[in-house]
Amino acid sequence: MSILFRCIFFWVSCVVLCALATATSAAQTSADSTAKPGETVFFKKTYTNKDGNRMPYRIYVPDHYDANKKYPLIFFFHGGGRGSNNEQQILHENFSGTHVWTQPANQAQFPAFVLAPQCPVDENWGDPDMNDINKQMQLALQILDAVEKDYSIDADRIVLVGQSAGGLGVWALLQSFPEKWAAAMVVGSYDNFTDLRAIARVPLWMFQGDMDLTVPVVLVREMVKQLNKAHAPLRYTEYHKMNDEIWDRAFAEPDLVPWVTAQVRKPAGSAAK
After folding, report:
1. Are the C-beta atoms of residues 49 and 143 closer than 8 Å to each other?
2. Confidence band for 44, pLDDT divided at 50, 70 and 90
3. Residue range 134-161: average pLDDT?
4. What confidence category does residue 244 fall into, taking pLDDT thresholds of 50, 70 and 90?
5. Which of 228, 225, 238 is nearest to 188 (CA)?
6. Which secondary-structure segment (H or E) carries 75?
7. What does the mean pLDDT of the chain come to?
8. What's residue 238's pLDDT?
9. Treating both helix axes as pointing N-terminal to C-terminal, what angle do 135-150 and 166-176 enclose, rounded to 10 degrees?
């Protein structure tokens, strides 16, 4: 595939994915006031760094949190859901990807925190040709650092999850800091790899619909070939006659939570399995 085509494809994809984003109210720093008794509560917070840059985020804290224990964390990157209202990144198409981990049965075997920052309108989590850590991702990483200081997070069990445009951020993180992550899950996203060896260090599960018009399956299949050639610890699930809206099915896979539960960050220099 030519460089020109890849560049055109990237920008067209970004325009399509940006159309899914919503920006309404300003971010808040409180618990979700819309939650009803018995419903999952994602606390609303806004991070401000020393330079005054801000990013809203939501965080789920496991029930009966005990600071004397170590907890895994799901680091979730939304696709559609851009804005500043601190809501859309855990609702609608992002609901399954953030809430599956909070279900009581899943919390019983995998009592994880869920961290979901929100990307501004007209911005992206990453660039599939550069795989650099942009301003938005820098803020997201600073939020993760702050959460690790505030709560007892198991640094060996931080799992990246990205869907659609959120997958661009996951690919960037895998190739920039492969030593930080226990595993990664990418739903309906693509990348023009810049460091396959880095990705091959981290257990990865990819999901794709074969009728996706935004991310053509032929492109993802080529990515899978490259990853397999690099001996990456990869699982790949392709859904027949489905477009890009595969998130509900992907996050309902019966092996997903057990697979994530089994992942622990590998020591530096060791190969993932």
Report:
1. no
2. very high
3. 98
4. confident
5. 238
6. strand 71-77
7. 88
8. 98
9. 70
**Which residues is 65 bridged to in the sheet?**
none
Dihedral Cα 37, 146, 175, 190, nearest 10 deg: 30
Using CA atoms, how far apart are residues 268 and 213, in angstroms rounded to an integer? 38
Q: What pLDDT score does 269 carry?
A: 61
> Are the beta carbons of 125 and 165 closer than 8 angstroms?
yes
209's tokens: 């619909």
Nearest to 188 by CA among 215, 211, 170: 215
Give me the mean pLDDT over the 104-119 stretch. 97
Query: Are 203 and 263 a contacting pair, CB within 8 Å?
Result: yes
What is the per-residue pLDDT for 8?
A: 42
| Sequence-ordered strand ranges (E) for 164-246 | 183-187, 204-209, 234-239
Return the amino acid letter for 198.
A
pLDDT at 254 over 70: yes
CATH classification of 3-261, choosing from 3.30.930.10, 3.40.50.1820, 3.40.50.620, 2.60.40.1840?
A: 3.40.50.1820
Tell me which residue of 77, 45, 68 sits closest to 58, measured CA to CA: 45
Position 13 pLDDT exceeds 70? no
Q: Global pTM?
A: 0.87
Burial 153-172 (b: 16+ CB within 10 A, else e): bbeebbbbbbbbbbbbbbbb
